[in-house]
From TrEMBL:
It holds the Pfam family Acetyltransf_1. One of its GO terms (molecular function) is acyltransferase activity, transferring groups other than amino-acyl groups. Residues 38-52 have a biased composition (Polar residues). SUPFAM superfamilies: Acyl-CoA N-acyltransferases (Nat). It comes from Branchiostoma lanceolatum. Residues 66-263 form the N-acetyltransferase domain. It comes from the Eukaryota. This is Hypp751 protein. The keyword Nucleotide-binding does not apply. InterPro entries: Acyl_CoA_acyltransferase, GNAT_dom, YpeA/RimI_acetyltransf.
C-alpha cells in the first residue's frame, strides 16, 4: 500500500528523507518544488566510503501530537508493562493469571539490563507522555535477552519458568531475510487507543526498514486477532497461515497468520 504524502515538507524532512508527514510551512528555499505533485521521500542511501552504524535508525518522527523515538532509560518500566500487556494472552497461558504482575516486574528487570537490545525498542509519545511501544528486528540482529533461570523461578515459579521458556522457543524460530524487517511487538496503552498510535508505530517500522534498505516488513498475528484488519489497512497481506501442536502448547493458540507488506 502506497502512502499519500503531503506535497509540503520542512527542510528537515527533505534533507533527511524521513517518511514523516510534515505540517510546517513551506520553506522559502523549497518554493521551486512542484506543489502539484505528491511524492514519497526515497529511503536514505549510503555511498561507498561513508560510515554507517550497524543499527542505523531513522530520525525521530513527529505526526501532530505523536512523536516516535528510540526507547530511553526512563521508558523502561512503561515499555516493560506495555510489552507484557501486548502479549497478555500468551503470557497468561505461560505463567498463569495470578503471576501476571510478577511477569511484568521480571520482564522490566530483564529489559533494564539487556542494553544490547535497546536499539530494537521504539516508544510513541502523545503530547509528551508515553503512549505505546514497538519492537522490530532485522536480519543481522540475533542477540537474545539476558534471561536468568534463577531470577525467573523467584518471580513466576517452576511452572511459570517452563512456560516462558516454551513461549520464547516458539517465537525464536523466526527466519528474517537480509532485506526484511520483522515487527515483533506493537502495543498501545489503553488510555491512548483510538488516537492513531498504532498506525504511527507501524509507519515508523516502514521508515526504519527503508533506512536499512529492506524491501518488505512482516509480522505474525493470531488469526482471531482483530488487529488483522488494522494490518490490512496498513498494506499488509496474509501470505500463509501456520501453526503446529507446539505453537498451540506454548502460546495457547495454534492458528496464526504470516502477514507481509512490500515497501
Amino acid at each position: 500500500m502506497m502512502l499519500n504524502w503531503e506535497p509540503r515538507y520542512c527542510i528537515y524532512c527533505v534533507q533527511n528523507q524521513v517518511s514523516a508527514c510534515c505540517k510546517k510551512s513551506y520553506p522559502e528555499d523549497l518554493k521551486d518544488m512542484d506543489s502539484t505533485k505528491t511524492t514519497e521521500p526515497s529511503a536514505v542511501t549510503f555511498q561507498p566510503g561513508t560510515t554507517r552504524s550497524r543499527f542505523q535508525t531513522a530520525p525521530e518522527t513527529e505526526q501532530g501530537p505523536i512523536q516516535i523515538r528510540k526507547m530511553e532509560p526512563q521508558d523502561i518500566e512503561f515499555t516493560g508493562r506495555i510489552i507484557v500487556e501486548a502479549f497478555h494472552d500468551k503470557v497468561e497461558h505461560a505463567v498463569g493469571k495470578s503471576r501476571m504482575e510478577d511477569m511484568t516486574q521480571l520482564f522490566t528487570k530483564i529489559l533494564r539490563r539487556s542494553t544490547h537490545l535497546w536499539h530494537r525498542y521504539h516508544v510513541a509519545m502523545y503530547e509528551g507522555k508515553p503512549a505505546g511501544a514497538m519492537v522490530i528486528k532485522f536480519h543481522d540482529d540475533n542477540a537474545i535477552e539476558d534471561f536468568q533461570c534463577c531470577e525467573t523461578l523467584s518471580h513466576v515459579g517452576c511452572w511459570g519458568c517452563c512456560g516462558i521458556l516454551c513461549m520464547l522457543f516458539a517465537f525464536t524460530d523466526i527466519s528474517i531475510g537480509a532485506a526484511e524487517c520483522y515487527v515483533d511487538t506493537v502495543g498501545v496503552d489503553a488510555d491512548y487507543r483510538g488516537k492513531g498510535i498504532g498506525k504511527a508505530l507501524m509507519e515508523r517500522a516502514d521508515s526504519e526498514a527503508r533506512q536499512r534498505g529492506c524491501t518488505s516488513v512482516f509480522l505474525w498475528v493470531k488469526q482471531s486477532n482483530r488487529a488483522v484488519r488494522l494490518y490490512e489497512r496498513q498494506g499488509f497481506v496474509i501470505t500463509h497461515p501456520f501453526g503446529t501442536w507446539f505453537t498451540g502448547f506454548a502460546t495457547g493458540c495454534r492458528d496464526w497468520y504470516n502477514m507481509e507488506k512490500k515497501l
